[in-house]
UniProtKB/TrEMBL annotation:
Belongs to the DnaG primase family. This is DNA primase. The keyword Zinc applies. Pfam families: DnaB_bind, DNAG_N, Toprim_2, Zn_ribbon_DnaG. InterPro entries: DNA_helicase_N/primase_C (IPR016136), DNA_primase_core_N_sf (IPR037068), DNA_primase_DnaB-bd (IPR019475), DNA_primase_DnaG (IPR006295), DNA_primase_Znf_CHC2 (IPR036977), DnaG_bac (IPR030846), DNAG_N (IPR013264), DnaG_primase (IPR050219). It catalyses: ssDNA + n NTP = ssDNA/pppN(pN)n-1 hybrid + (n-1) diphosphate. GO terms for molecular function: DNA binding; DNA-directed RNA polymerase activity; zinc ion binding. The gene is dnaG. A zinc finger (CHC2-type) spans 36-60. It comes from Caldicellulosiruptor obsidiansis (strain ATCC BAA-2073 / JCM 16842 / OB47).
Length: 587
């Protein structure tokens, strides 16, 4: 039974360990805090509670237990995430049976897409070595790629007017072929989007082909490069080219480059820790991916202005996600591919050794825009330095260091800088805090009547779960009739059944049964706060049961039942209302 697996897994893994694999956590009081991995923010509003084994972000509202966290951050289905955690906890589980129908259908589609990509991969690779496609082989030679290297990276070729679609149609449904994103329909005919292109298969970290990149072999048409669109198994912002090989490198760091050719050329020279971003934007997901294997990253993007800007942004993202980031600048070559061909491996490695710490790189970039001998420019420089250099640094020691540096560059007294910066930052912090507070208040008061009733039910359910295992009287005090919202009522019933079967349902396990994102957010928001004593919990239960919202709902239900002529229900509701009223007067 899947519930048993969930119980075992949640009892054995600690959510603090799980989250720490992706985000650096900082202890604040009894909880842990971090920058939210699910939305962009500068002040941390993402919390993890070790006692309840849950997480919640007050910025974007996401919340849940360890399974939800892995689902979200790895983009997995429930069963897949459970499997990952079961492996981590060294629990042997047979997952062949108990998947939900939705999970099963999705897993099957993913499997078929992977198999289809593998078939395409083999097809493209075969084509590269055919006599009729000699132009492609010539192009590879021209770019200085050796045969072993082409094999290692699985390079291939996609000829014009090929019959790939027809071949695939014998084995796969039209739906799956369409979902692969490899074909484009034009005038009722299906064309491969990579026709006439050299093929770079894109592997995931398990060495499965999940997408393709294609480059034209004569420069007669545009665009030069084309990638697979995002599909069920492929997302550009979550994949790094070459990571399947680079993850096993013995080096302590990764070198991040922009293009397929950069990755391939450097690997060919024996630099085996190189990965490429597909398109120039590096994302937070990429940081998580890199951080799974190593703590240090050297950025080596193109030397043009676009590359410099990308270095600036990417450096920030990597640094804010706790990675040690350095920047390499290559002179007299437009990219690493050209550089290593012109100057060789040793020159490249020397450059890497002299790579600059990312913050120093940023300072160099910013200061090059100002003439610091003029006071108005100096003032503007200080402002930009505050915002782009000092603000993002959360480590006090590091910040101190860079205040000293600013003082050296500008000849302004260190204390004066510190004073001005603290003033600046406090104003900014206050503004952010008040915005967040406003958002929360707004959310609360914006609840519709329906949502308020639901919130009432959720609060009741959460107290029940917290106490049902500890107190028999609380276990008996709550019944199905106490819930107004249908889905919460169902949730309650299934939890009650599990408790009756002797399972210890913890708070974080309760969350496993919740599908609704809004309910999850509510349940993890700590607004449903715990109660110290059984008496206090009982009192809260009574209050929730007799709450005005509930009365409102009961009255409305009764009116509806009257309209329908459902006398039995009317009687039942009347009795409930009377009971609540009597109880209230009795208090
Ligand atoms: Zn968030």
């Amino acid at each position: 039974m899947l519930e048993r697996v969930v119980e075992q897994v949640l009892n054995k893994v600690d959510i603090v360990d799980v989250v720490s694999m992706y985000v650096p956590l900082k202890k604040v009081g009894v909880n842990f805090r971090a920058l939210c991995p699910f939305h962009q923010e500068r002040t941390p509003s993402f919390y993890v509670s070790p006692s309840k084994q849950i997480f919640h972000c007050f910025g974007c509202g996401v919340g849940g237990n360890a399974i939800h966290f892995v689902m979200r951050i790895e983009n997995l289905t429930f069963t897949e995430a459970l499997k990952v955690l079961a492996e981590k906890a060294k629990i042997d589980v047979d997952f062949s049976q108990p998947q939900s129908a939705k999970d099963r259908a999705l897993a099957k589609q993913k499997e078929e897409l992977i198999s289809l990509h593998h078939d395409c991969f083999e097809y493209f690779q075969r084509q590269l070595y055919l006599r009729e496609n000699i132009d492609a082989a010539r192009y590879i030679l021209k770019r200085g790629i050796r045969k072993e290297t082409a094999k290692q990276f699985g390079l291939g070729f996609c000829p014009e007017n090929n019959n790939l679609y027809e071949l695939l149609a014998k084995k796969y449904s039209k739906e799956i072929i369409d979902k692969s994103g490899i074909f484009i329909e034009r005038n009722g005919k299906n064309y491969c989007r990579f026709e006439g292109r050299l093929i770079f298969p894109i592997f995931d970290t398990m060495n499965r082909v999940i997408g393709f990149g294609g480059r034209i072999i004569d420069d007669s048409r545009a665009p030069k490069y084309m990638n697979s669109p995002d599909t069920l198994i492929f997302s550009k912002s979550k994949v790094l080219y070459g990571l399947n090989i680079a993850k096993s490198s013995k080096e302590k760091d990764f070198v991040v480059v922009e293009g397929y050719m950069d990755v391939i050329s450097l690997h060919q020279e024996g630099i085996d820790n190189v990965v490429g971003v597909l398109g120039t934007a590096l994302t937070q997901d990429h940081s998580f991916l890199l951080r799974r294997y190593k703590n240090e990253v050297v950025l080596c993007l193109d030397s043009d202005q676009a590359g410099k800007n990308a270095t600036f942004r990417s450096g920030d993202i990597l640094y804010q996600n706790g990675l040690m980031v350095k920047v390499m600048e290559l002179e007299n070559a437009k990219d690493p591919d050209e550089y290593i061909k012109k100057f060789g491996k040793d020159a490249f490695l020397l450059k890497k050794q002299n790579a600059m710490f990312v913050i120093d790189f940023k300072i160099k970039q910013i200061s090059s825009n100002y003439d610091l001998s003029k006071s108005d420019q100096k003032i503007r420089f200080v402002r930009e330095y505050f915002e782009k250099i000092l603000m993002p640094i959360s480590n006090e020691v590091e910040r101190q260091e860079y205040i000293k540096k600013l003082s050296q560059i500008t000849q302004i007294d260190e204390d004066a800088i510190l004073k001005e910066f603290t003033k600046n930052e406090n104003i900014k912090l206050k503004r952010i805090e008040s915005i967040q507070h406003f958002k929360q208040v707004q959310q609360k008061s914006n609840l519709t009547e329906e949502e308020r009733i639901k919130k009432n039910d959720i609060d009741l359910l959460s107290i029940y779960v917290e106490w049902a295992n500890k107190s028999e009287s609380i276990r008996n005090a709550v019944t199905e009739d106490d819930f107004c919202t249908e889905d919460i009522k169902i949730l309650f019933s299934s939890i009650k059944n599990l408790i009756n079967e002797g399972m210890e349902v913890t708070y974080s396990m309760l969350l496993t049964f919740v599908d609704d994102e809004k309910v999850l957010s509510e349940l993890t928001s700590f607004s449903s706060k715990g109660f110290e004593t059984e008496e206090a919990a009982k009192r809260a239960i009574e209050e929730l049961k007799t709450n005005n919202n509930r009365m409102l709902w009961l009255r409305r239900e009764m009116l509806e039942a009257q309209k329908r002529g459902d006398n039995e229900k009317v009687l039942k509701l009347q009795m409930l209302i009377r009971k609540i009223k009597d109880g209230k007067e009795g208090i």
